[in-house]
Every structure is written in C-alpha cells, then in structure tokens.
Amino acid sequence: MSRKVALMTLALLMAGGPCLFAQANGPVNFPFIDVGVRSAKNNSEVALSLQLLLLLAVISLAPSLVVLCTAFLRISIVFDFIKRALSLQQVPPNQVLMGIALFLTLFIMWPTLDQIYQKSFKPFADGKIGIEEMYKQAESPVKAFMWRQMGNDYGNVELFLKMGNYPKPETKGDVPIHVLIPAFVLHELTVAFKIGILLFIPFIIIDMVVASTLMSMGMIMLPPIMISMPFKLILFVLVDGWGLITMQVVRSFG
C-alpha cells in the first residue's frame, strides 16, 4: 500500500512540477523548431536543394569512408584475429578494440590529415580556392596514401579498370577515386588476412599440443580450449604481445 502511495505522489509531483515552477518564476518558454518545405522558385534553389541532399548523403557515408579509405580496416581485422586466436569471447570488448583501432588509425593517418588541412581546408576557409579545387586538393593525399600501401601491386586496380571498361591510365593520378577505393579495400583485406594467418600459427600449435596431451591422458570430455587458453594468455603476456603487434601493424603501413 505504501508503495502505491509513493508512486502516486511521484506522478503528481512530475505532473505538477512544471506548473509550480511557472507560477513561481513566470511563464516557461519552450523552443519551437519549424522546418518548412515549399516548391522551388528558380533553378538556383533547386541546385541548392540537391547540394543539401548530396551533403547529407556524404555525411551518412562518412563512417564508411573512414573505415574503407584509411588504415582502420587492416587494424580492426588484425585485432579481431588476435581475439579469436586467443580463444577470447568477450574480453576485451569489441568497443575497446575498435576504439584502439580508431586511435591507431588517427596516429597513422595524421600526416595525410595534416596535408588535407594545409592544402585543402585552410585555403578554402581563407577564400583562396573554390570548392572544386578544395575537393581535388583533399583527394590527392588520400590517393597517395592508398597507392603507398598497395606499392607495386596493381592487380586489383587492373581488375576494376577492366570490369568498368575504363581506358588504361597513363599515370597513377589518372586512376579514378571510385576505382582506387575498392582496389585498396581488397588489398587491405588480403594483407590483414595474411597477418591473421601468421598470428594464428603459434596459438594453433598450443591448441594441438594441449588436445593431443588430453587425448593421451584419456580426458576426452574436457574441452581443450579451457586448458590451452591460459597457456596462450601467458605466452601472449610474456612476449608483450600487444606492444609487438601494435608496432608491427604500424610499421606495415610504411
């Protein structure tokens, strides 16, 4: 009974609180947000509406661009391979691994981001260049980063040029960005999987040794992962696994 009375009192206070506040301090002003939609009067308003829709589309695709056009893809896949190789389910959480990958991406991409700011955003903010020139100046460092990671591996670029029936470019700068991005993504996936295979080898050996030992002792019903996981964690900590993997991943970007 007392619980029902407390709940009713709380509901009355929540309902009458704003009214009491308004009587004591005057009327309360709430903001009103109005978004109007009307027919365009001329071609410039139509163009402005299309630019606004394009801007919203670019903003919605921004996370995908960060994932696919930077070092984030390789780092996140390598960290996921580490977690699986150690037979860990929930530790560390995926949010922690993605956060580490994000800050490592920022560390690796800082020179590229600085070039974009100095050559693209800052001149545009100062009114020295237009929006088209700003896009070209921002695109150039990103393309240079992608080409630097792919090195002399032109197979994926040739694949997408062939599928799109594009003419053979004379220089790397002539490759369209919409061709370079999927080629870069395939290259990063390949590199990340190669690193993952190398990471799995020592931990697979530990699993095989533990499984064969348990079978020789007749302990068939005991899951080998329960026994091998502590040994894998001990090995990983003793060799400073996080430091070594982070250093090698950063060095892999050149």
Annotation keywords:
254 residues, mainly alpha, elongated, disordered N terminus
Model description:
It is a single chain. By secondary structure, the chain is an all-alpha fold. It has one domain. The chain has 9 helices and no strands. Helix 3 (72-85) packs antiparallel against helix 4 and helix 6 (155-163) crosses helix 7.
Sequence-ordered SSE layout with sheet pairings:
Layout: H1 2-25, H2 43-68, H3 72-85, H4 94-125, H5 131-150, H6 155-163, H7 177-216, H8 224-238, H9 241-251
Helix pairs in contact: 3-4, 3-7, 4-5, 5-7, 6-7, 7-8
Provide the helix percentage: over 70%
Q: What general outline do the C-alpha atoms trace? A: elongated
Low-confidence stretches: 1-24
Report the radius of gyration as a whole number of Å: 28 Å
Number of strands: 0
Strand count, sense and barrel status of the largest sheet are: none
What is the number of helices?
9
Query: Total domains, how many?
Result: 1
Query: Approximately what portion of the residues adopt beta-strand conformation?
Result: under 5%
User: Pairing-aware structural class of the strands and helices?
Assistant: mainly alpha
What is the terminal separation in angstroms? 71 Å
On the 0-100 scale, what is the average pLDDT?
Answer: 77
Order of helices and strands: HHHHHHHHH
